[in-house]
Structures are given as C-alpha cells and as structure tokens.
Amino acid sequence: MGKVIFGNSVSLDGFVAGPNDNPENGLGGESLFRWYSNGDTAVPLAGTDMVFNVSRASAELLQEEWGKIGAMVAGRRMFDIAHAWGSKPPGGGPCFIVTHHPPQEWLKEGSPFTFVTDGVESAVAQAKQAAGDKNVAISSASIAQQCIKAGLLDEIHIDLAPVLLGGGVRLFDNLGVTPIQLEIVRVVQRQGITHLKYRVVK
Ligand SMILES: NC(=O)c1ccc[n+]([C@@H]2O[C@H](COP(=O)([O-])OP(=O)(O)OC[C@H]3O[C@@H](n4cnc5c(N)ncnc54)[C@H](OP(=O)(O)O)[C@@H]3O)[C@@H](O)[C@H]2O)c1
Fold first, then answer.
1. Higher model confidence: residue 30 or residue 54?
2. What confidence score (pLDDT) does residue 20 get?
3. 120 CB within 6 A, ligand 1
4. Domain count, the chain
5. Ligand 1, residues 72, 100, 145: which to mutate, most atoms within 8 A of Cβ?
6. Considering the domain boundaries, does residue 193 fall inside one?
7. What CATH number corresponds to the domain at position 193?
8. 75 lines ligand 1 (CB under 6 A)
C-alpha cells in the first residue's frame, strides 16, 4: 500500500495561495511558483499539458515524487480554481474531489473525476484503493488539515518559497491544539526553493 502525502509550494509565513485566489485570478501569490519556471530542466506533469522548467536538482526530486503518485484527492475550491484542470487532472490517475455539491456537468461517463460527498476519510480510502501500491497525493489545504486531524496523512512535502506573502490561504489552520509530531526526512536547498519532507509521527 502506498502512502498518503501532501505537497504544496508554501511561503515562509505559511500560505499556499495569495489573498485573491479564485477561478478568475488563479492561485494568486505568483512568487510561490517562480521556482517552477526559473530553471533549465523541463519536467512534464503526467496527465496534463503542463511543463515545469526547474533546476536540474529540483527536477530529479519532482520526477521521483511525481512518479510515485497513483491518485489525487483535492477539495472543491481547488477544482474550481483550476477549472477542473481542463479535464486533465495532475498525475494522470484517478482524481477524487471532496465536495458537498457535485457539479452536474462532470457527472458523466468518462469523467476523470469522482466526487465524494461523505467526507475526507471516504475520499482517501477510495483513492488508496485506486492507487494500489502508489501514493495518494493530497493537493488542497483544507483536505490536508482534515487528513492530519484524522491521522490519515503519512508525509508532508513542503516546497518552501523565499517569500512572506502576508495573507492568503493558510496551510496549517484548523488543526486544534494538540501538537502533531513530525520527523524530518529530507531537507534540500535548490535554486530559489527549499524542498522539505516530513513524516507524520503516529
Ligand atoms: N501552493 C500550492 O502548491 C498549491 C497547490 C494546489 C492548491 N493550492 C491552493 O490551495 C487552495 C485550495 O485549498 P482550500 O483549502 O482553499 O480549498 P479546498 O480544500 O480545495 O476546497 C475546500 C472546499 O472543498 C469542500 N470540502 C472540503 N472538505 C469537505 C468535506 N469534508 N465534505 C464535503 N466537502 C468538503 C467544500 O466545498 P463545497 O462545500 O463547495 O463542496 C470546501 O469549501 C487554493 O487556494 C489553491 O490555490 C496551492
């Protein structure tokens, strides 16, 4: 069985998106993502038409991690902001969207999305089943928070961008007061970005 991992680019003050993220503006906080285009090594994102140009060293890390992804779980805001990734969800595997209101236009034969209305635990269980030996990637802040609280998350991968955004979508909100212990697995400093990998101690 693979792991359940969360990975995002995060500002030093803990934001995964700027204050005005919405379907018109995209993610906001462009400085979070500069490292995706500041290098000379192209890394295509499986399942999509997106190609990132990062340093060679970051490319090796991305290829290693992305190659292990078998399914993705995201929240409805991410789905809407990304315009359903043009019907090509990142990773190329099954994609589970947690929502209270499945969009009728995507409930059709051949849709790459499964809409999960009975919570994060159900979404992760379905994604694990679909991913087999590969990992489940969590890509939304609110879903990551719920996974951490439910003890579902195995690893946190932070691409730490050298910026203080000052506002936006905070990654580690709503966790409650209990300390969550992490073990440092990897710290790698590369061109314009620091790659951090933690194991959640259970
Ligand atoms: N920095 C990066 O690398 C990176 C990468 C990806 C995304 N992002 C950012 O991450 C943000 C997305 O995370 P987010 O936390 O804002 O939103 P989100 O997790 O994508 O979506 C939240 C929405 O999902 C639905 N939902 C969540 N939990 C649910 C549950 N248990 N049951 C039913 N529905 C549930 C609800 O929508 P409904 O009630 O409407 O159904 C909720 O409002 C965006 O700002 C995006 O830009 C950043």
1. 54
2. 82
3. yes
4. 1
5. 100
6. yes
7. 3.40.430.10
8. yes
Phi-psi sector, 18: left (phi>0), alpha (psi -120 to 50), beta: beta
Domain that residue 181 falls in:
4-35+70-200
Q: Supply the pLDDT for residue 29.
A: 67
Which residues does 87 contact at the CB level (< 8 Å), separation at least 6? 111, 112
In a domain, 99, yes or no: yes
Compute the average pLDDT of residues 139-161: 97
Q: Is 42 among the domain residues?
A: no
Rounded to the nearest angstrom, the distance between the alpha carbon of 41 and the centre of ligand 1 is: 30
Q: Which of 13, 15, 16 to mutate to test the pocket of ligand 1 (most atoms within 8 A of CB)?
A: 16
**For residue 143, what are the contacts with CB-CB under 8 A and spacing of at least 6?**
73, 74, 75, 98, 120, 123
N residues, the chain = 202
Report whether residue 8 contacts ligand 1, using a CB cutoff of 6 Å.
Answer: yes
Residue 74 lies in a domain: yes
Give residue 176's pLDDT band: very low, low, confident or very high (50, 70, 90). confident
- Give residue 98 CA to ligand 1 midpoint distance, Å: 8
